[in-house]
Amino acid sequence: MVARAYTVAFEGVEAKPVEVQCAVTPGLPAFSLVGLPDKAVSEARDRVRTALSSMAIALPSKRITINLSPADMPKEGSHFDLPIALALLAALEIVPKDAVEGTMALGELSLDGSLIAVLGALPAAMTAAEEGRMLLCPRASGPEAAWVGSVQVIGAANLADVVRHYTGQAPIPPADPGEVIAPPPGRDLRDVKGQERAKRALEIAAAGRHHLMMVGTPGSGKSMLAARLPGILPPLTPAEALETSMIHSLAGLLNEGGISRTRPFREPHHTASMAAIVGGGRRASPGEISLAHNGVLFMDEFPEFPRGVLETLRQPIETGEVMVARANAHVKYPCRFMLVAAANPCKCGYLSDPARACSRAPICGEDYMGRISGPLMDRFDLRVEVPPVAFSDLDLPASGEESATVAARIANARNIQSARFADHPDMRLNADAEGQLLEDVAGPDAEGRALINRVAERFGLSARGYHRVLRVARTIADLDGSQAVRHPHVAEAVSFRLAGMKET
Hints:
By secondary structure, the protein is an alpha/beta fold.
C-alpha cells in the first residue's frame, strides 16, 4: 500500500506541486529516495530516520522507498524533510493516510525532530490554495504563509506536534498572518538644499515609474536625492505586495512573516556580479532587479559597473521580466522596477565644475560616459544634471516642499493612472503604455506635436525616445491634473530628455 503526501518544488516564483509517495515492502532493509533529488534532499533520509528515533519510532526491517513525482523535475532544498517524514508516518499507519493526502507540507527537520523555517512558504501557500489542500509548515514560517487567506495554514514546532495534530490528541490552531511592517520615518526631501530641477525630475520619475539618470560632481547630492525616493513613493497595493513578497520569500528577506507595504529600494555596489544583479547562481536565484520588483533599483557610480552587467539590463527594462537560463534550469522572474542611476561626469568627477577644470576635458568625460552604451542610455526617460552646491547655500534654511506634500501629488497621479489602465491588467502606470493605447492617452495637442517633431528631427530621437517623451509628458500632465497633454507638458518632458545630448 502506497502512502502519499504533497509538497512543492520551486521554479522561479512558482511553486510546482510534488507528490511524495512512500511504499514499505518486504525485502532487505533499505531506505531509498528516488525522483531526481539533489544532495540536500538525499540527506533527508538520515534526518528523517534520526528524528523518528528521537520520538521512539523504530523503522521496520523492510524496504522503504520514497518517490518524488514527477520524477523528471529537479528537487532542491531541505524543505522536503517534513513531507517525506509525513508520508513515512502514514505508510507506517501512525497518522491517518487520508488526512495526510489532504495536506501540502514543507519544512526542514532537525535531528531532535524540531522543525526549522524554510524559504518559499508564501508561494507554497498559493499552490496549496490552488490544489485545495491545507498547508503544514514550521511554526516560524506560519505567519508568512497565512497571508494567503484562502488556505488553512498549520504551523508546527516539531514532528511530535504533527503526530498529535493528525491523531486528534492536540490539534494545532491555524496560524495568523504576520504583522505588516511599518516603514521607519523616511528622510525628507526638504533636507536637500537647492537642486529644485533634480527634485522635479525625481517627482516625475516616481509618479510614472520612469527611469532616471543623474549626472553631477561628487558631493552634489545625487545619492542624497535617491535616498529620499522611498519617502515619496506610494505604498504597495495588495496585489503588488503579494507579488513582491513572493520573490522576497524565496530570497529569505521576509522578517518574522511580516509583509511590508513599503516599495523595495535596492542599491547594489558597483562590484556586484552579473548573477547578483540579474539572477542566477547554482539555484537560479532572483537577482537585484527582481528584488526591486515594483520598487526602485538605485545604481550609484553607474559607469563603474562592468559593461556586461549594464548591457544585461536592456532587455529587463523593456519587458519587465528576466529569464535566468542555466544548463539545468530556465527560470523566469518578474522585474518591473524603476532604475535610478547616478554618475560623475568624468573619471575625476569635476568636468562641469569651472573651479576645478579637468585638464583632459572634454575627452575625459567622453571616455567615462562612453562606458554606458547608446542603446542603454536611450532607455532613460529622464536625464538631469545635478550641479554642485555652494558652501553658502548649506547655511540657508531648508527650502522647498516636504516629502509628504510631494508624495500626495504622486499618489494622486498614480490613482489617475490606475483608473486609466483599469481595463488593461498588464499595464499599471504610464511607463507601461505602448502602441495605439499610448497614442490614445498621451497624444499631445497640435503645438506639442509640432515641438516634439522638431526635436526628433534636430536631435535624432529614436522611436523609443519619441515614445518615452510622450509617456513622460503624460505623467507631467497627470501631476498637473490635466486631461490632455499640452505644449508645456511636452516642453518639460523634452527638456529632461535632451540633457547631455548633442545635436546631429
